[in-house]
Amino acid sequence: MEIVSQLIMNGIIAGGIYSLIALGLTMVYGILKFINFAHGETFMIGAYLAWTFNIGLGLPFWLSFILAMVGTGLLGFIIEKIGYKPLRNAPSWAPLIISIAISIFLQAFAIMVWGAQIKTFRTGEISQGIPVLGAIITPIQITILITSLALMLGLYFFIMKTKIGKAMRAVADNKDVAASIGINVNQTISIIFVIGSALAGAGGVLVGIEQNLTPMMGVPMTVKGFTAAIVGGIGNIWGAVLGGFAIGFIENIGIFFIPSGYKDAISFAVLLLMLIFRPRGIVGVKKEEEVRG
Amino acid sequence: MAYFEHIAILIGIYTILTISLNLNIGFTGLINLGHAAFYGIGAYTSALLTMAGVPWFISFLCAGVVASIFGFLISVPCLRLRGDYLAIATLGFGEIIRAVMKNWVGLTRGPLGIPGIPKANILGMSFSDPIHFLILVAIIAAITLFIINRITKSPFGRVLRAIREDDVAAQALGKNLTYYKVCTVCVGAFFAGLAGSLYAHYITFIDPTTFTLQETILMVSMVVLGGMGSVSGSVLGAAIIVILPEPLRFLNMPSSIAAAMRQMIYALILILLMLYKPEGILGEKTFKIRRKSLWNPFKFLKGKLSGGT
Question: What angle do CA A166, A28, A273 make, to 5 degrees?
Fold first, then answer.
C-alpha cells in the first residue's frame, strides 16, 4: 500500500511537469499542425539557464527561475521567427525536419557551452522527506508540484480572461476566420511560442532541481509531452494537462511491473498504442481523418 | 591510406542507409525517424548470429530479413497515420528498440556492447583487409543502388510518387496505400539491416549508443541534402555529409566538443537547406546515362544496316 501511494505521488509530480511540456506542444500543433521537436530542447535550455544564473552567477533561485522562463520564451520567439515562419506554407514535412534540425543544434550548443558532463543544482545535503498519506515526498517535490500547478492556473486565466488569450483561442479554432476579423495571426502565433517555450523552460528548471542536467534530457521529454498531448486530444489545452498527469501515472505505475530501464520506453509504447487505437485522444473531439492518412 | 579507406567504407555504408531511407522519405513521403533502429537490429542480428557460429553471408542476409520483419511489424499499425504522426511513432519505435538493446542484457550485453565481432568472410575468403572490405561494401552499395533505382523507375515506384504527391488521389485510383507503404518500409528496413551487418563486421564492436536518434537525423540530412527522391543525390549526400566534418579531426579538440561541433554542422546544413533549397542539391533529377550509347557496341552499324535494306 505504501508503495502504491508512493508511486501515485511520484506520478502526480512527474505529471505536473509533463503537462507543462504538453501545453506548448499541443498549442503549437493546434495552430500550425506540426510537431515542434525543438520543444524538448527548449526545456533543456531552460534548465541550463537557471543553473547558470543560480549556481554560476549566484542569483537567488526564484530570480533564476523567472530569468530562465524569460530566456526560453525569447528562444521560442527566435526559433519561430527564423525557423517556422518562412515555412508557413511549405509542405508539412518541412517544418518538421527543420524543428528536428533546431533540436540537434540546441543539443550541440548545450554541449559546447555547458559541456557534456552532468550538472546539478544540489549543493547541500539531501533534505529529509515528509510523509504524506503513506508516501515520502521531499520539499523539492512539493515545490515542483505547486509551481507547475500555479503555472497551469496562470495559463488558464491568461487564456480565458485576457484579450490575447481570446485571440489565441480564436486562432487555434480557425486561423483564417480569426485573420478575417482583424486578429493578427502572426503575432498571436509568436505569443503562443513564447508562452509555450517559457512553460517548457519552467518544466526544465523543475526537473533540473530534482534530477541532474544533461544536454540530452530534452529528447524523451518531447515524446512524453507529445504523448500527453495525444492522450488528451491534440490541440486541446486542458486535455494536455490531463494527458500529462495520465502519462506520469502510467509511467510510475509501469516501472512497478517492468524493469526501470524501460521507463522512457513506457511512454513511447503508450504513444504507439494511442496513435493506433485512439488517435483522437481520451477527451479529444478531433476528427479521425486529421490523424489517419 | 587506411584513413581514406575508412572514410570510403563509411560513405559506402551510409550510401546504403541513405538510399533506403530516401525510398521512404523522398519517394513515398513517409517521414521515417526509426531508420537507425533497423540499422541497429541488423547489426545486432548479424553480430549475434556470426558469434553463434553462423557463416557471415547467411547472417548478413538474416540481418536484412530480421530488420525487414520489424519494418513490417511497425509499419502495419503506423502507416495508417498521417505524416508527422508517423514521424513521432517511428521515433518512438526507434527509442523502444534502443531501450531493448540497452536493457536486455542477457541477449545484447546491454550498455557494454558486443566486442570481438568476427570480420566478414565468404566461403573462407576473408575481408579483414580494409581494401577488400571496401570492395565488398562498394559492391553491396552498387547492388542497393541498382535495386532501389529499378524500384523507383518501375510502375510500383510511380505509385509511390503518386502517394507522396497526393495520397487521396492515389487511393481514388484504386491503389492500396497500406500495401505500397508497408512494402517500401520493409524494403528500406531490409537494406538498413544489411548496412548494419556491414557496420558491425567492419568496426567489430557494437553498442546501443551507435543507433540513436542522432544517427537517424544524420541519414535524414543526407537524404535532404542530396535531394528527396533522388537516388544519385543520396550517394552525393552521404559522401558530402561523411566528408564535411572530417577536417575538424585535425583541429585537436576534445572529442566531446568535436562530436557536438559535427552535430551542429549537420543541423545547420539541414536548417539552411530547408530554408533556402528544400529540394536539395540534385532535386528529383538523377544522373541519366544514355543507355543506348553505353550498352549497344554495334550502334555504328545501326544506321548502315537499316539504310542498306
Answer: 120
Comparing CB atoms, the residue among A83, A107, A223 nearest residue B88 is A223
In chain B, how many domains are there?
Answer: 1
Question: Mind telling me how many Å the CA of A88 is from chain B's nearest CA?
Answer: 11
Domain that holds residue A95: 2-121+129-290
- Chain A residues in contact with B274 by the CB 8 A cut-off are 87, 94, 97-98, 101
Q: Is residue B23 one of the residues assigned to a domain?
A: yes
C-alpha distances in angstroms, A63 versus A44, A48, A51, A76, A252? 18, 14, 11, 20, 31
- Which whole-number Å values give the CA distances from B222 to A196, B26, B215, B248, B277, in the listed order? 31, 11, 11, 19, 14
pLDDT per position as a tens digit, A191-245: 999 999 999 999 999 988 888 888 888 888 888 888 888 888 887 888 889 999 9
* B2-29 residue pLDDT tens: 888 888 999 999 999 999 999 988 888 8
Asked which of A248-262, A268-282, B256-270 is least confident by mean pLDDT, the reply is A268-282
CATH number, residue A17: 1.10.3470
Structural domain including B80 reads: 2-210
pLDDT score of A73 more than 90: yes
